[in-house]
Amino acid sequence: MAIALRLSRGGAKKRPYYRIVAADSRSARDGKYLEQVGTYNPLLAKDDEKRVQLNEDRVRYWLGVGAQASDRVARFLDAAGIKERAARNNPNKAEPGEKAKERAEEKAAKVAEAEEAAKAAQASAEEAPAEEPAAEEVPAEEKAEG
User: Fold this and answer.
1) What angle do CA 50, 52, 55 make, to 5 degrees?
2) Whole-angstrom distance, CA of residue 5 vs CA of residue 80
3) Which of 3, 53, 100, 112 has the maximal Cβ count within 10 Å?
């Protein structure tokens, strides 16, 4: 018989309450179980010690006879220090592919070239200020005569 440590739901609608049970893996979720080894109340605050309660001796016994913990129960056991749980997050999964990396590098190179060209144009404009043609000044005496 394959034994699983898993959650069995109880409580009213929208007010869940779970028992952590050792059950035959083929039985229904809320069906017959072998033994209740703890409780889980998701409505309590995450830092409340009554949120997850485990009978460690019985959990260790069931793990010793070959029971497999469900993912959620394995998280509880890891937090309690009973059984180590391997991290399931793959940090490399979100990394872009090779072609996307190449496109990003090309775009960065184009942006860098544009910035250099803008700096060079600005520097050349500052070095050689444009000389404005001076308006010919007509002496005031000539204006009055003419």
Assistant:
1) 100
2) 15
3) 3
Strands (E), 64-122: 68-69
List the domain boundaries for the chain.
Answer: 3-80
Q: Which residues of the chain have pLDDT under 50?
A: none
From the list 141, 21, 115, the residue with the least C-alpha distance to 76 is: 21
9 in helix, strand or coil? strand
Residues in CB range of 26: below 8 A, 6 or more apart: 2
Could you tell me how far CA 95 lies from the centroid of its own chain? 13
Picking from 61, 56, 47, the residue whose alpha carbon sits closest to that of residue 3 is 61
Q: Give the dihedral of Cα atoms 86, 58, 68, 71; nearest 10 deg.
A: -50
> Using an 8 Å Cβ cutoff, are 22 and 37 in contact?
yes
Topology of the domain covering 3-80: S16 Ribosomal Protein; Chain: A; (3.30.1320)
Q: Is the pTM of this model over 0.85?
A: no
